[in-house]
Amino acid sequence: MAILHVEEIRDMTPAEREAELEELETELLNSKAVKAAGGAPENPSRIGELRRTIARIKTVQGEEGDLEDEQSD
Predict the structure, then answer these.
(1) Has residue 69 got a pLDDT over 80?
(2) Are 4 and 10 contacting, i.e. CB atoms less than 8 angstroms apart?
(3) Which of 42, 47, 68, 72 is deepest in the core (most CB within 10 A)?
(4) C-alpha distances in angstroms, 24 versus 3, 18, 27, 43, 54?
(5) Whether the predicted model's global pTM rises above the 0.90 cut
(6) pLDDT of 1
């Protein structure tokens, strides 16, 4: 999965952003599990890239109002 830039994230639909967010969070969780188990991840800097991309997506969701629907439930 490639790291996304803000322009690419803004071009996505809210559903695409949510799907991408889930996928990235799963990858981050798996990478952290490998690290916690004492293994060496293939690309250690990938964890930081994943965290930044997740933050970008959540920021755009907040700006676009995607999160308002979830918070009202």
Answers:
(1) no
(2) no
(3) 47
(4) 9, 10, 5, 15, 7
(5) no
(6) 58
Which pLDDT tens digit goes with each residue over 5-60? 999 999 999 999 999 999 999 999 999 999 899 888 788 899 999 999 999 999 99
Distance CA 1, CA 6 (A): 15
Q: With residue 51 as reference, give the H or E element that holds it.
A: helix 45-64
Neighbours of 58 (CB within 10 A): 15
Q: Tokens 């009202």 map to which residue?
A: 72
Q: Cβ(57)–Cβ(24) under 8 Å?
A: yes
Q: CA nearest 58: which of 47, 71, 45?
A: 71
E strand or H helix that includes residue 11: helix 6-11
